[in-house]
Design a protein that fits this description.
This protein has 571 residues and is α+β, with helices and mostly antiparallel strands. The protein has helices spanning 3-35, 37-47, 54-70, 81-103, 108-127, 130-135, 137-142, 151-173, 202-205, 207-215, 217-226, 231-267, 269-278, 281-299, 317-342, 361-366, 389-392, 425-431, 500-513, 516-520, 523-570, and strands at residues 176-180, 183-189, 195-199, 227-228, 301-304, 346-347, 353-354, 359-360, 378-384, 396-404, 407-416, 435-444, 447-455, 461-475, 478-493. The strands form 4 sheets. Strands 8, 9, 10, 11, 12, 13, 14 and 15 form an 8-stranded mixed β-sheet that branches. Strands 1-2-3 form a 3-stranded antiparallel β-sheet. The radius of gyration is 29 Å and the shape is globular.
């Protein structure tokens, strides 16, 4: 082969990978823009909260590994039957999770993010060969880490860590530990006789540090893959690095709180606060990260892992055009289906179609109670409850007293730009010293009503129920979804379990006082779509397994037949 031919082939390969990467990025950008712009907005806002700040690290690592791996991933210009089945299954699964987000507004971000991740997998399956998907397996799996866990789970982990940090620091410093509900307080007497009180809040719990270490696991795995050594040795190295990094991060957080308490004890509160702000968690998280990478490089064998041989792919002009047309068509069709699902008509129980009004952001901020209740509900009192804004995570919290017919009930109306901002009532109640005995969900029309049964320190029982509703809001000329949570509280006296009639009455009250378009949602139509999609998913799973069995069965029979022919020839 002449030198010029080699240069032309190299240029053709580079063009193929460039066009493939550009096609993938363009399709991904268009798909995310038109299908998941609300998810991206909510994830961006979640990054600025303490519990979900690790998402930024995950995204940086994803793009870093993707940039390193994509240049080695073989592209595909063929559309086999097996690939069609796999793409159909992934696309339907993505659609199914998108429908679940409509049915369960309280977990909408989690379900929509799952849908978005599977959508990315679907595009990758469409563009790359099996070898290419193996090469991209790590960055594609890294996307799982951007799925935000439920707020209640994060809160419970944070409270557990706060308790452990508080008890350890109290033991080391001789401070008095006070547990009020789930609030952990350290009381220390300074050398000057002043009484100083510290609360072990989320920033002190260590959850931010630990989640940051968890976020770098894909990068640790990538380093292990590129090193030499056996698979068992590399797995052990990843496990050891993660454990050591997490331990250092947690110990560093304890040391930080310990130093703050000791500074308060010997130099006063001002010195303690100065120390707290001058020793950010980034310092010991960075130390833990560096130590984790040091361990992974030392435990694994020095040297690079043996590279796998992959088949080089060079597309012709026609193949360039075919692949780009195929991916563009898929992205457009997926966008239309997702848009149709998000705008399915709202139906009341009698089959009557309803419509949701669009409110301005300013109107919602000032009149959040006015968009929730029917006209026959009288709002006796509606006052701001700023003391609950931080506990509940909402932008606005209104304490309300309502009258419907002869029933008077108290509760709260909250508004937040994203559903993830709503903290669970479990956290708020236990923080105030109440004891939560039971939490369960029941259907309300086509929505989900969550009940919380709890008692105070005197043994008096209460039944709280809340409903999260999505409403269209005009954010500076752009219509998007905002969320309202209505919570009603019913005193029950001294009872050991919630009476069934009170549960039914509270549900009926929600049904009568809330506007029907808010509790009907769009889920009657969505449920039909979800049922159809779930059925198709099962069908495609069966088709994939059948196709795989037939393909590998045929391959095995062909291999055995060739061996038989060779043996006869040898004889």
């Amino acid at each position: 082969m002449a030198y010029g031919d080699g240069v032309l082939i190299k240029e053709a390969k580079e063009l193929t990978y460039a066009v493939g990467a550009l096609t993938f990025v363009t399709a991904l950008g268009v798909g995310l823009r038109y299908n998941y712009h609300d998810v991206l907005k909510e994830l961006f806002q979640a990054i600025f909260t303490e519990e979900y700040s690790y998402l930024f690290v995950v995204l940086v690592i994803f793009f870093f590994i993707l940039a390193l791996k994509s240049s080695k991933a073989p592209l595909s210009s063929e559309l086999s039957l097996g690939k069609v089945f796999a793409i159909a299954l992934l696309a339907l699964t993505s659609l199914m999770f998108n429908a679940l987000a409509v049915l369960f507004p309280s977990a909408s971000l989690m379900f929509k993010t799952v849908s978005m991740v599977i959508f990315v997998w679907c595009l990758a399956t469409l563009l790359y060969t099996k070898a290419g998907l193996r090469e991209l397996l790590l960055p594609l799996l890294t996307l799982i880490l951007i799925i935000p866990p439920p707020q209640e789970l994060m809160a419970k982990i944070s409270l557990f860590l706060s308790d452990k940090v508080g008890r350890i620091v109290a033991y080391l410093t001789g401070s008095e530990l006070i547990a009020q509900g789930n609030k952990i307080i350290l009381k220390v007497i300074s050398t000057s006789g002043d009484r100083i009180v510290f609360e072990i809040a989320t920033a002190c719990s260590g959850i931010v540090s630990l989640s940051s270490i968890m976020a770098i696991i894909p990068l640790i795995i990538y380093v292990a893959i590129t090193q030499g050594g056996s698979l068992k040795r590399r797995f052990f190295a990843v496990l050891l690095s993660t454990v050591i990094g997490s331990s250092i991060a947690f110990a560093g957080n304890i040391l930080r709180v310990f130093l703050v308490v000791m500074a308060a004890k010997y130099w006063g509160l001002e010195a303690a606060l100065t120390l707290f702000h001058s020793v950010p968690s980034l310092i010991y998280v960075s130390i833990a990260t560096l130590l984790a990478f040091y361990v992974i490089t030392k435990v694994t064998k020095v040297g690079r892992a043996r590279a796998r041989k992959v088949k080089e792919v060079v597309w012709s002009t026609r193949e360039h055009r075919n692949v780009m047309t195929l991916i563009a068509s898929f992205t457009i069709i997926a966008s239309i289906i997702m848009a149709t699902l998000s705008t399915v008509p709202i139906e009341a129980e009698g089959g009557k179609r309803l419509s949701l009004a669009t409110y301005s952001y300013e109107y919602v901020m000032n009149n959040v109670t006015g968009i929730v209740f029917n006209d026959d509900v009288k709002v006796i009192r509606s006052i701001d409850a700023p003391w609950l804004v931080k506990l509940l995570g909402s932008t606005v919290v209104k304490s309300v007293v309502l009258r419907y017919n002869e029933t008077v009930v108290s509760g709260y109306v909250e508004f937040a730009e994203t559903a993830t901002r709503f903290h669970g009532w479990w956290v708020c109640l236990t923080f105030q010293g109440f004891k939560v005995l039971r939490v369960w969900n029941e259907g309300l029309g086509n929505s989900t009503l969550t009940y919380v049964f709890y008692t105070d320190k005197y043994g008096r029982a209460f039944l709280l129920a809340f409903l999260i509703m999505a409403i269209p809001i005009n954010f500076g000329g752009k219509v998007d979804l905002g969320y309202v949570r209505l919570s009603l509280i019913k005193p029950l006296g001294k009872v050991e379990s919630p009476p069934a009639e009170e549960v039914i009455k509270l549900k009926e009250l929600f049904k009568n006082i809330v506007k029907p378009e808010l509790i009907s949602g769009s889920s009657r139509s969505t449920e039909r779509i979800l049922s159809m999609v779930a059925t198709l998913n099962v069908v495609f799973v069966i088709l994939i397994f059948t196709y795989a069995a037939l393909t590998y069965g045929y391959s095995l029979i062909s291999k055995l037949r060739r061996r038989s022919v060779i043996r006869r020839g040898g004889a």
